[in-house]
Amino acid sequence: MLRTRILAAAVMLPIAILWIWLAPYWLFAVVAVLVLLAAAWEWASLAGLRGSLSRLAYLTGMAILMALCWWAEHLPHSLLPLFVLFSAFWLFVLLTLGRTGLWNSRTAFLLQGVMVLVPAFMALLVLKRGNGGTSLVFTSFIVVWSADIGAYFAGRAAGRHKLSPRVSPGKTWEGFLGGVLLAAIAGAVASLWCPVSVFLLVPLAVITAAVSVVGDLAESQLKRFAGAKDSGRLIPGHGGILDRIDSLCAALPIFVLGIELGQKLW
Q1: Which backbone phi and psi does 239 adopt, to 5 degrees?
Q2: What pLDDT score does 29 carry?
């Protein structure tokens, strides 16, 4: 399985890097929409929408909200309050993880899907169009990828204490700390090309990595509700699209909020 995961990652990684660095803004946005809508299709299925028509209706609503995000991103007003709201949502998810009385219905998970996927799209647009946009997008991805890699190998090597046994029994505190540590190192390295001070980027990388784990746990909670191991079978060794971007979806709004606040206060 590890070999399959590495081979699949070796194919996906260059494609993702080319998309981030070479795609013009409009193509960058279009690809992001397609990937997130594919994830929304998987989310809808896990949440309990079995019919194709009902899932298409869910995707249509998502597409409309993403189109509104694209329009709103061009407005001259600050979007900072929105990202404060998006970040508050992830704090709410953290505080309610494992509470089956709350996260135990199709409606709750469908609404959660909107708050997971749509803000991630808006965050990508804001990062891409900002000062040093491409390098910021790349940095956010590198931080989350580093957190995933660090958590995976640290958990396998030294994982003993369960992080959230009711939601995801395989995750450990040792893996969490390994992921955060590697993300901090990635943030320090990224300051070499990113137009953000290392003194902001490293703590932001730590916070972003920590929140990315909440995104992973939120999807794990959804899969437990659905009785599924993976969100799909599209990517060998990795599962579905959602399995690959759940951490990113949580991390991106937090990363944008940190950059926006840092630029105002620094």
Answers
A1: 95, -130
A2: 95
- In the chain, how long is the greatest CA-to-CA distance? 50
Contact 35, 15 (CB under 8 A): no
What is the number of residues in the chain? Answer: 266
The answer for residues whose C-beta is within 8 angstroms of residue 135's C-beta and 6 or more apart is 193, 194, 195
Helix axes 2-22, 25-47, angle to 10 degrees: 140
Average pLDDT (57-83) is: 88
Specify which residues 168 forms β-bridges with: 164
What are the phi and psi torsion angles at 171 (to 5°)?
Answer: -90, 140
Q: Say whether pLDDT at 237 is over 60.
A: no
Distances (CA, A) of 10 to 5, 122, 128: 9, 27, 24
pLDDT digits (tens, 9 = 90+) for 97-142: 877 667 778 999 999 999 999 999 999 999 998 778 899 999 999 9
Can you name the residues that pair with 235 across neighbouring β-strands?
Answer: 239
Q: H or E stretch including 264?
A: helix 241-265
3 state DSSP class of 172? strand
Dihedral sign computed on CA atoms, order 259, 260, 263, 266 = negative
Region at 48 (left for phi over 0; alpha for psi -120 to 50; beta for the rest): left
**What pLDDT score does 92 carry?**
94
Residue where the block lists tokens 């003993």: 160
Q: Is 205 helix (H, G, I), strand (E, B) or coil?
A: helix
Going by C-beta distance under 8 Å and a sequence separation of 6 or more, which residues neighbour residue 138?
Answer: 17, 20, 21, 190, 193
